[in-house]
TrEMBL record:
<dbReference type="GO" id="GO:0004109">
    <property type="term" value="F:coproporphyrinogen oxidase activity"/>
</dbReference>
<dbReference type="InterPro" id="IPR058240">
    <property type="entry name" value="rSAM_sf"/>
</dbReference>
<keyword id="KW-0411">Iron-sulfur</keyword>
<dbReference type="InterPro" id="IPR006638">
    <property type="entry name" value="Elp3/MiaA/NifB-like_rSAM"/>
</dbReference>
<dbReference type="GO" id="GO:0006779">
    <property type="term" value="P:porphyrin-containing compound biosynthetic process"/>
</dbReference>
<dbReference type="GO" id="GO:0046872">
    <property type="term" value="F:metal ion binding"/>
</dbReference>
<keyword id="KW-0963">Cytoplasm</keyword>
<feature type="domain" description="Radical SAM core">
    <location>
        <begin position="24"/>
        <end position="268"/>
    </location>
</feature>
<keyword id="KW-0349">Heme</keyword>
<dbReference type="GO" id="GO:0005737">
    <property type="term" value="C:cytoplasm"/>
</dbReference>
<dbReference type="Pfam" id="PF04055">
    <property type="entry name" value="Radical_SAM"/>
</dbReference>
<dbReference type="InterPro" id="IPR007197">
    <property type="entry name" value="rSAM"/>
</dbReference>
<keyword id="KW-0479">Metal-binding</keyword>
<dbReference type="InterPro" id="IPR004559">
    <property type="entry name" value="HemW-like"/>
</dbReference>
<dbReference type="InterPro" id="IPR034505">
    <property type="entry name" value="Coproporphyrinogen-III_oxidase"/>
</dbReference>
<keyword id="KW-0004">4Fe-4S</keyword>
<keyword id="KW-0143">Chaperone</keyword>
Amino acid sequence: MAPAQPEGLPAPLDGRLPASAAEASAQRTLSLYVHVPFCAVRCGYCDFNTYTAVELGPGVSQDAYAADAAAEVRWARRVLADSGVAVRPLHSVFLGGGTPTLLPAEDLAAVLDQARASFGLAEGAEVTTEANPDSVTPQSLAVLAAAGVTRVSFGMQSAVPHVLAVLDRTHDPDNVPRAVAWAREAGLGVSVDLIHGTPGESLADWEHSVRTALSYEPDHVSAYALIIEDGTRLAARMRRGEVPPVDEDDQADKYELADRLLAEAGYEWYEVSNWARPAGPDGTAHRSRHNLAYWHNQDWWGIGPGAHSHVGGTRWWNLKHPVPYTNRVRAGHSPAAGREVLDAPTRRLERVMLEARIRDGLPVTALEAPGRAAVAGLIADGLVDPAAALGGRVVLTLRGRLLGDAVVRRLLG
């Protein structure tokens, strides 16, 4: 079941953005997210806006999706220009889902070609696709690399078959190293995603998964704690007592283990759930620039059903189901279901919530007086790095990362 959309104001059919969205827009980066809402099988823990072939119903074809996404890319270019927002070369592009690589590589390349034609790509732009390890071949990865993709993020989740079974992941674990090798041969950077805290996963299981992922020598690792979302098969199984509930202490132990193993292997955390291999003079080359754009609240346009966008404090979200989304796009209307314009207090709150999560930290000057006063206590409690605070930035310690929500509450006063 896809998550409910937020409440908001009606979005105009012409997509026009308020004047506030254009303020200082040339000083911000612009990224593109392309949501491909198709999956071969729905995983039991997933509440993303995705659909299997049997769930799509009439009126939607995977074969036509690239053309519809490209049409929204052209629409985005026009709306930004008509709204007085600076049309900038794209800082990053992210093909997510769902499973983008269920589409032919040539279709994804066509969407990227349209993005390049409409906006251009900034020098050194990062272009990422997510992929199931079973959904790529050496040939498809070569086509994507030739089209401008620079990195691929593989959904590994675990190296342990019984853990993958609980998650309803159907990929063959043996395909992960093969897919990584093919990506390397195509000249692509590699990230792998892991999930910890699955019911029935032991600490030894998790250590095996992390060490296995490290054996593939990826550039980047994401490790997320499993969240049980209402409406998913896994939540229903848990309610029926078929699997045990998630243990937060167990998840904390696994986070600490992952952080230690990754650090020993030369990876540095740069966001609470993300680690990268350092490279280059500033050590940031393998960090996900697209995700950092989110955490720094830059501008991004989300393409596709249910995709969210943010430009200069205006946020909107597209119709969830592919049928009404497609009908709107083909009619030349905005596919947005609703939007909101954030006021100054909300933007300050979001800045604290987002920038407190990253290694570069949150400037102390971004806090209101109660938050600045709370920093000393957070240092005393071992939640904030004292040296960074003396330098004017709030940076979480390992313990602070585990208790990040509590830290943010105190910083917000």
